[in-house]
Amino acid sequence: MRSVLVANTLPYRASEAWIYDTVIAPAVVDLRRGLEEQLVQLRPGARVLEVGSGGGQLAVDLATRRRDLTITGVDLSAAQVARATRRAAKAGVGDRVQFVQGDALALPIDDAAFDAVVSVASIKHWPDPARGLAECARALRPGGPLVVVEADRGCRLEDARAFVARWRMPAPVRPLGLVLFRTFVAGQGLDLDDGRRLLAALPLRETSVERIDGTPGVLFRGTRT
Ligand SMILES: C[S@@+](CC[C@H](N)C(=O)[O-])C[C@H]1O[C@@H](n2cnc3c(N)ncnc32)[C@H](O)[C@@H]1O
């Protein structure tokens, strides 16, 4: 069976979802810094859509910090949806956070149904990122922010090394982790020019693309017109 590692548009299998959640996801918290700064400004009672919600860490953290938000996560992988649903129930936020299986390229979401749309480390898996982002914009109400974070293909070696140092793996195998990260994660990620090109095609204003300081990540955002 082929792995998502080399065929990155495949849905994560249960074993891959477990490995990602256990080994890598704890480090992804660093990449979310800028995104969370933007989300805390959301109006009371806002509805947030997360595309490629994985094991649900971001949605559950956000719902725990902001008790007024309702959050929907969409993920291609049934295994990830199951993990995320269990995480939300365990954290006691299952009444405000739901996860559904679906494809970023054809979101099972009505037009303008959300006040904010976010996505972390998922777009590199989408077979057609431009179409997925157009779907994100479609799901967003006018004035709402779209914030996307992805591994930066042009990241600095030191930032990649610091990121991999936070993976939950024994130190002796970290050099292998760094090779995997540079090849299959950042190597398939976006760079600043990709971000600018993708944003330019969307119905967004106040767009920006920036590296996330001290991390191998890039954040791009805009406000729905
Ligand atoms: C690297 S994980 C990131 C998970 C989570 N956002 C995080 O930051 O930990 C990428 C996620 O994107 C999901 N994904 C891949 N292709 C997708 C698609 N076409 N539509 C929706 N989700 C997708 C995968 O199943 C996986 O859960």
Itemize the secondary structure elements and their pairings.
Blueprint (H helix, E strand, L loop, with lengths): L13 H15 L4 H7 L7 E5 L5 H9 L4 E6 L2 H13 L6 E5 L14 E5 L8 H10 L6 E7 L5 H8 L9 H12 L6 H9 L3 E9 L4 E8 L1
Parallel strand pairs: 1-2, 1-4, 2-3, 4-5
Antiparallel strand pairs: 5-7, 6-7
The protein binds S-adenosylmethionine.
Structure notes:
The chain is α/β, with parallel strands linked by helices. It has a single domain (14-224), classed as Rossmann fold, CATH 3.40.50.150. The protein is built from eight helices and seven strands; from the N terminus they run ααβαβαββαβαααββ. It has helices at 14-28, 33-39, 57-65, 78-90, 129-138, 157-164, 174-185, 192-200; strands at 47-51, 70-75, 97-101, 116-120, 145-151, 204-212, 217-224. Strand 1, helix 3 (57-65) and strand 2 (70-75) form a beta-alpha-beta unit. The radius of gyration is 16 Å and the shape is globular. The mean pLDDT is 93.
Give a short overview.
This protein is an alpha/beta fold.
Content of β-strand: 15-25%
> What Rg is obtained from the alpha carbons, in whole angstroms?
16 Å
**Strand ordering within the main sheet:** 3-2-1-4-5-7-6
**What ligand species are in this complex?**
S-adenosylmethionine
Strand tally is 7
- The DSSP helix count reads 8
Index terms:
7 strands, binds S-adenosylmethionine, 225 residues, Rossmann fold, alpha/beta, globular, 8 helices
